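Schema walk-through. Below, the input block comes first and the output block second. Nothing else is stored per chain. Lengths vary across the set, and this one has 261 residues.
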Amino acid sequence: MIVAGCDVGALTAKAVVIKNDTLLGSELIRSRAQSVLSANQVMNLLLDKLGLSFDDIDYCIGTGYGRAMVPFADENVSEISCHGRGAKWLIPSIKTIIDVGGQDIKAIYVDEEGFVKDFRMSTKCAAGAGRALELMAESLGVKVDEVGPLSLNATEPVIFQQPCCIFTEIDVRNEVFNGRESANIAAGINDYVARRIINMARNLGIRKDVGMTGGIAKNVGVVKCIERALGLNLVEFPEDPQLIGAIGAALFAADKVKRLT
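--- output ---
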């Protein structure tokens, strides 16, 4: 049995292929302007890498914001369900998943099978999400993946208090203009992002073990802020945290095949 999951998000598109409960391979790209193009590109890249074709895939499920626009998917499932299922498959002890996507934050509580029991999701404001972090990194003059390591050198972290990420971006520019050390600004950015994530998680309720998915999970500065505030260590996934949704989608696809055979 060979199944696939395709997660088309606001910033990145991911695809995975699973064969008989083993992850065969994965691919991740920057999302294109149209979800259809993102889905086709990421899946074609993965299939070419694995030496497979669409005919080899028994079932595929799409997820993410663009899930309804994955042309080759047999059906689609919400990213909340997929992140919960994928995280539980990789870390059986996990109960709480904090997913930070490009546009929003989700806190998810799962049962022993990885199915969602409860969740919280940010709505209109993108503060704390991936795109907000990218904008603040641009204002600082560094790449988004440099903000985490840079912040570890901070001696006097800046405290950003604006409720809106756009106003915070302006504050970042002002700090740069005033000559504040980049490391201290980076630490302030990470603290700002972490505070939004922590509020969402606490609103749901923290149940150990806790893991973080999405691109911001790769930011060591944000992770350290969250761990310090919650008084616990986040679990480390054996796979890229950005792939968890696609993995969950493939697992739902596997369920479907088992029911049909």
